[in-house]
Structure prediction request, 872 residues.
Amino acid sequence: MHRHSRYAPGAGTACAAVLSLSVLVLSACGGGSGDSADAPPAQATAAAGERPAAATSCPPLQGTPVFQGRVPKPETVLGFALGSQEVSSEQAYQYMQAVDQASARVVTGEAARSAEGRPLNYAIVGREANVSAMGLQRVRDAVRKLRDPATSVAEAASLAASTPGILWVSANVHGNEESGTDAALRVLYELADREDCDAARILDNSIVVILPIQNPDGREADTRRNAYGFDMNRDWFARTQSETDGKLELLRQYPPLLFIDSHEMGQKKFFFPPNADPVYHEVPDRALSWINNLYGPAMAAEFNRLKIAFFTGATYDLYAAEYGDSVPTIGFHAAGMTFEKHNGDPIATRLREQYVAMWASLSAGAGERQRLLGEWRASQLEAQDQGQRGFLEPNAIQFDPKTPLYQEVPALQVRHYFFPDDPARQRELAQLVRRLQRMDVQVYRLTAPLQVPGYRPYGGSPDTAMLPAGTYWVPMAQRQKHWVQALLHEDPYIPTSYSYDVSGWSNPLLLNLPGGSSGAVLSPQASLVGAQAVPAWPAPAATPRIGLLELPGTAGFESAGSMRYVFEKVWKLPYTFLTPDKLQASLGRIDVLLVPDGSAKEALQTLGSRGQQALADWVKAGGRYVGYQRGAELAVGVGISTVVLKASGTATSGALVRVRLQNGSPLAAGVATTGSSVSRAWVMYDDDARMSPGLGVAVATFPPVGTPDFHASGLQTGLEELDGSAAIADETVGSGRSIVFSFDPNFRAWTEGTQRILWNALLGPNPALASAAAAAAPESARQGAVQGAQRAAQALPELDKPIRIVVRAADADATRALLQRYGTEFQESRRGERVVFLIANREELSGEEHPFAQDLAAELRRLVTPLSVRMP
Prediction:
């Protein structure tokens, strides 16, 4: 089944139109190199739909720049020209300060501090009248009124005619992707000093916010991730990291019409939108149209003219509300765009191509300023109207018409979300309310009981509900309707059977909050909730001595890093950081050992037989071992867990799946909602290994698909494999205990619902009744169970952070032949009518960093329709 795109981007063609300043003139376009690339604010030069005289005489990037000579050239300040070498964070900020001091067009500031205390500095460049203190306040006030549905039509039209658009250029969210920073500094220099018509078009019609370095710690360390191991291009809705949080607060001050997020990748050429499918159904139509029909063609025209190789579509989607393109688009109604440039080219080439994409986009946005501002307001009014009607946007295939539509958005109405004031969930409620408020969502509390017909509880069946006073209410009838649905949905309704990253991210499920929605027309008695403070975890009565073991590899750095963040910033608990080579000597100084994901095989080799025996003896003498994912595998390898781990054949790309916990287990403390006798939690299942409990107790299990307990949000392909399997196993080992999770209970620090279970595992009491099987088993039986578990663990794939492809059995031969043509190492396994291919990734590169992963995925999708292509 297919559904036509809401706005056709040219169906895979990279060159669909030529931009002529303030209007688009559609024309035939050859293939080129692209593949399927304190005075009042300044007035616009022409009304929407009119062609200013400069349109034919001053095309972007084609004239000779004219400089005033008032702003120091980069080489004067830095000692080298931009493009001759990469700038450091300190050098970038030094130059920004020099430009600020020299030009009345520029002001600079600090958006945030990084985990290691480095500043995230920004610059705002525009006409002096617009960037003075009074001018910026006027711009902020005007934009606020444009976004306010209560503003009159006449005043809104006047504001659209006189207010500069806010255009953003950001870069370097991944610390080892440097060229966007250098290009952004060139844009800053030229806008600060040029006086020609090309620059004037941007300066007269916009203020440009430049955030050249989003990850200064990563830039200094030359690593993708920040100091806590976070990929901050997956942190946008959660805002766990100070860098992300400060950036979003600056975005709220200066809401964008355009947001550029510049990256680098292993793939050849240059990428810019249109994006690949899937596109999230609540992406605003107008913003999507700007991306596909204004900015994309503008860049394609320039890249073709300059004979720069590029592509569009491919694997970069606009789906999960976690990225530097999807969050500005869904949360701010902006044209959020990712740029990707091949990281293997010289810095001069990378800088030039990033600069061309940036300048072409800024020029296109500035040239259409008045129309875009009018449509930007209309988009937010339409969102409020949709919320009033309870209307959800439909799904569509946006880029490749040959792709079948996987899931329709059902014909149901959603006008309200409700969350009970559960005493057992006060912290999680506060987190959700704060997260919504800090994206300008209005949240209320009922002041009187409310009967709600057709109430749809998360994971339950619709029924009439009587909600008490104090219940939190989030109406959809507000301009942030798209963002409300993006965060509070139960089902994301994915339009394809695959996604670039996770397929589920519902915030109430991540927080394990009870609640639900209704499409009924209601008039609740309610009061607006005041600004929610940062919620705090309760201090424990006693804190054991906790050791955190970081396993080798990139996954180890990420997984342990996210736990370092939680210990230090969220739980505020002391811990001892350990590595395998230091573990044996440190066991006497800890009571609990936490082992997240990473390379268990390398850790076992580093520990050696003596270290492994020391760890086993420590547990038997009363130590508590807590591990997850390959931390569970390490426990098996050491002989302190008898769980049996087997590779899965699922294709979920990261889905939220509900599990049921054993009543009475200390791990389930505080998990059940008030008044419920059943403890359930939503886990982020990321195609993890299937686990049987061995001699331990399955404290949490995956309910069989089709039973009332089963529920999932996101892709569900193959979840029947998990029927009845263990998600958490608790096992007595001598006088000690091992607790292992098959999944990551601290996934990206998003999963605060399962963080509670992890807290219990680390700090809670031992079970009143130990595992009878483990306690009663003779040593010979235990050794047999250990050996069986170790044999199963040794059969698990050892491909580091593999690329995971799942296809239908009928497509296996074509997939295999493609992989063989690429000459890559892979493993293949069949699961009924599905075949799983795991491609070795020995350097543990991300999908963007990998030299051929994106090309492989794009070529595969031309051959077959995969069930899943999961990049690391």
User: Anything to note?
Assistant: The radius of gyration is 27 Å. Confidence is low (pLDDT under 50) at residues 1-33, 35-55.
